[in-house]
Specification:
VC0802-like, Rossmann fold, binds adenosine-5'-triphosphate, binds magnesium ion, 5-stranded parallel beta sheet, alpha/beta
Length: 363
């Protein structure tokens, strides 16, 4: 039995039921993907999942889950006998009992349960009670007249259940940033389709691996669309070289990707495009260049990492597991990258480029 706690959805008023059901379905889907057939019940602010203890780690990755505890279900009267067995062989330096009564019709208060069970443990094991930072926490939750006992609370990713917020198309490279952007959107409940522009640098296998890691946070397999980057970029590059404005290549490269992403997003009925841009990180991510990139696409673009430092992004990438895939990324310089890259170009010049691209049917 696994107790699943969720936070934010508890406060969503009328939407609450729908959110709980979605979360339950997503948990069962995550387990099924790993070959576990579980059962789940929604009860008073908790989801109780019947599955083996190993399922806890899988459930902790489901967006919307705040924490999980592998637990044993019993009558309250059976708790002492259970603990006598379960705590055998343990010898913590200190402990405490932490009770939560989700069922207010239960006759004892949480404090009474803490005292009663705490006294039982002291009597039988002689351990010291410490309320602040004890080595062992004996958790008890009273739900619908039953007691659930556990010793571990695994932190979940939090956020909202995937599928409650519509869909986005995520531009996924083989780098560190965009997988984190994708994760953050999943975490906030958006469904994602990944779009990768293949530059023939073997990044594709890294991207496939990344998608596989991200699948742990998604109720269904994430669709990966791969496009040939050179084909998309070629007409832009040839116009720029004719105009002698190669320094705009990186900006136009992003424009090319975003415009193609917008087409796909419309087909996929997605409501936004997501990138891993972080302000000022590289030349194409200055505020001026983000302005040009955004202005040339009539579609909402979301940049969940915009205000994050590289260290913060790397920390998340390591935590969610996508950093490890990146380490296999075969770094290779982009063959189109010019010697000089605009970082604060003139609007008029950019408009001129767009006009030529439009006249020649590129955009
Ligand atoms: P990342 O670490 O995500 O690759 P980056 O720091 O390398 O980002 P850029 O190369 O400027 O930065 O890319 C900015 C964003 O553009 C990326 O986060 C990603 O969303 C998108 N992008 C870049 N290259 C590709 C690609 N080959 N396919 C799909 N999207 C890409
Ligand atoms: Mg990159």
């Amino acid at each position: 039995m696994i107790i699943v706690r969720y936070g934010e959805i508890g406060i969503k008023g009328g939407k609450r039921r729908e959110f709980e059901r979605k979360l339950r379905d997503n948990i069962l889907a995550a387990l099924r993907r790993k070959g576990i057939e579980g059962k789940a019940r929604i009860v008073r602010g908790r989801i109780l999942v019947e599955a083996p203890d190993e399922a806890a780690e899988i459930i902790a990755k489901v967006p919307g889950v705040v924490s999980v505890s592998p637990a044993r279900e019993m009558l309250y009267e059976e708790v002492p006998a259970y603990l006598k067995e379960a705590l055998k062989g343990h010898s913590p330096e200190s402990f405490k009992v932490e009770t939560q009564r989700l069922d207010k019709t239960f006759l004892k208060t949480s404090v009474e349960v803490n005292r009663e069970i705490g006294a039982f443990i002291v009597e039988n094991f002689g351990w010291k009670v410490r309320l602040k930072n004890p080595e062992l926490v004996v958790g008890i939750e009273i739900i619908s007249g039953r007691a659930y006992v556990f010793f571990e609370k695994i932190r979940g990713v939090g956020g909202l259940p995937v599928g409650t917020q519509g869909k986005v198309v995520v531009l996924l490279s083989g780098g560190i940033d965009s997988p984190v952007a994708a994760f953050l959107m999943l975490k906030r409940g958006a469904e994602i389709t990944a779009l990768h522009f293949d530059q023939g640098l073997n990044a594709r296998s890294v991207v496939e691996k990344t998608v596989d890691i991200l699948n742990d946070y998604s109720p269904k397999d994430i669709e990966l669309i791969v496009e040939n980057h050179f084909e998309v970029l070629k007409p832009y590059v040839s116009v720029l070289s004719r105009l002698g404005l190669q320094e705009w290549t990186c900006v136009l490269c992003k424009v090319a990707m975003l415009r193609r992403a917008a087409e796909i997003a419309r087909e996929e009925k997605a409501l936004g495009i997501v990138t891993g841009d972080s302000l000022g990180q590289v030349a194409s991510q200055t505020l001026a260049n983000l302005y040009f990139e955004t202005m040339s696409v009539r579609f909402p673009i979301h940049r969940p990492l915009l205000g994050m430092d590289k260290e913060e992004i790397v920390a998340i990438a390591k935590r969610i597991g996508t950093y490890q895939a990146f380490l296999e990324y075969p770094y290779c310089d982009c063959p189109f990258r010019p010697d000089r890259v605009v970082t604060s170009g003139k609007v008029e010049q950019f408009q001129r480029i767009l006009d030529v691209l439009e006249r020649e049917g590129v955009i």
